[in-house]
Amino acid sequence: MKRTSLKLIGGWGAALLLTAGLAALAAQYDRDSEHEAIRYLQTAAADPVAKLQQRLAREEVRWAYDPQRGYLPALLRALNVPVSSQMLVFSKTSFQRDRISPQTPRAIYYNDQVYAGWVPGGSVIEITAVDPQLGAVFYTLSQERSGKPKITRLTHECLQCHESGMTAGVPGHLFRSVYPDPQGQPILSAGSFVTTHQSPLRERWGGWYVTGTHGRQRHLGNLTFASAAKAEKSNREAGANVTDLRRRFATALYLSAHSDIVALMVCEHQTYLQNLLTQANYQTRIAMDYERRLNRELGRPEGTRWESAVARIRSVNERLLQGLLFAGEPPLTDPVRGTSGFETQFPRQGPRDRQGRSLRDLDLKRRLFRYPCSYLIYSEAFEGLPAPAKEYIYTRLLQILNGEDRSKTFAHLSAEDRRAIREILLDTHQGFSQWKASQPTAAATQ
Predict the structure, then answer these.
(1) Which of 227, 322, 401, 418 has the fewest beta carbons closer than 10 A?
(2) In 58-141, which ranges are continuous DSSP H helix?
(3) What are phi and psi of 181, to 5 degrees?
(4) Is the CB of residue 340 less than 8 Å from the CB of residue 256?
(5) Which residues pair with 109 in a beta bridge?
(6) How many angstroms separate the CA atoms of 341 and 339, rounded?
(7) Long-range contacts of 309-316 (CB under 8 A, 24+ apart)
(8) Where do runs of H (alpha helix) occur along 58-138?
(9) pLDDT band at 442 (very low <50, low <70, confident <90, very high)
(10) C-alpha pair distances (Å), 192 with each of 48, 188, 206, 262
(11) How far apart are CA 119 and CA 136, in angstroms?
């Protein structure tokens, strides 16, 4: 069956010129976010927190002040962030590290676009949001009582940690697992892990509280370690299948007594995918900018495609595609159950196809999701991808879901999985269904 693809134009000499041009132009920028096609620091954000900030400035929003938790409850309501998403991290891995400990963990709450971090007695609430063109944008909300609460955007102080190889080289979110000592200080000599949906459970949640059941599977959550040597030989039974944290710290300080295992697992996938979305956005825009410059300098027609740029677009979007389809996700060996109600609330947000199926439906027996295609395909970040990126993703998705690509990378997708995902997307994803309908062979594959 014929498929559309990115067209390759230009001979080897031109390709070599482009390669040299890419290297010369890239050398002008220390980071992709500083590239003229991106301009992260100079560009106004358009994420939910930026919009809320504008409403606060215009005094369109009036917030009640909680004597114990400040503006946290009001902020979560304003941004539609569920309390059931609460995750508790006690490792000192935040700029409010002096207030964080196993007795006073930092609470993190999230929805599909926004994350809020709160520590008892903290002077600010840490907030990040995903902008469809910029990626992660960082803010603080002052906890000082005021008739006009103030949200402030942060840049360099957050990007020191949140723009690196651990965040796919873009402004992004970082989900880490460490070996914490009894005070919550990471034992760096013992190592650490960046956690995604590809991580085995045995590497996850060091420095985090975890509530829920997971059978015989073991993780690093709910534990502290005396030394690096003892961390390597640790008995993890004390941290396993914990459903009540009240003996570990004063849970009444928090909006919830839980640090739900399902909320943790969904968040690990979400942050990883959002970083890949930003990386695909940046790299595609930069490649398109290089093409425009080269076409201008060589007098080529506008829109001429160059092999090296096409290869760059293909490479970064193939990584995104693998993330969307949960390539590399290790299977669960026992069922997982949460404690906060997150696992029942999360799937309700839809959308659902004509058979009532949703990409938000959880499995929690063999894997995280029942239909292994990320719900973030509906996100503003995905919709904000440049046209060449979306064309590549849609083309490859159809190849995989139709069974034309049976490579090892996607061998985890059964024929039933592929059929279900394809039907769900055609019913619920306007961009994908419209693109497919525009293809010359669409009628033959209905």
Answers:
(1) 227
(2) 72-79
(3) -85, 180
(4) yes
(5) 116
(6) 6
(7) 309/18, 309/22, 310/6, 310/7, 310/8, 312/22, 312/283, 312/287, 313/6, 313/283, 313/284, 313/287, 313/388, 313/389, 313/392, 314/6, 314/392, 316/279, 316/280, 316/283, 316/284, 316/389
(8) 72-79
(9) very low
(10) 32, 7, 8, 21
(11) 21
pLDDT digits (tens, 9 = 90+) for 381-423: 999 999 999 999 999 999 999 999 999 999 999 999 999 999 9
- Contact predicate 90/105, CB 8 Å: yes
pLDDT higher than threshold 70 for residue 8: no
Separation CA 68–CA 114 (nearest Å): 23
Annotate 19-30 with DSSP letters as a single string. Answer: HHHHHHHHTT-S
Q: Give the pLDDT score at 29.
A: 55
Mean pLDDT for the chain overall: 91
pTM of this structure: 0.91
- pLDDT value of residue 441: 66
CA dihedral 96, 101, 107, 113 (to 10 degrees): 50
In 3-state terms the chain splits into helix, strand, coil percentages (rounded to 5) of 40, 10, 45
Residue 441 DSSP one-character state: T
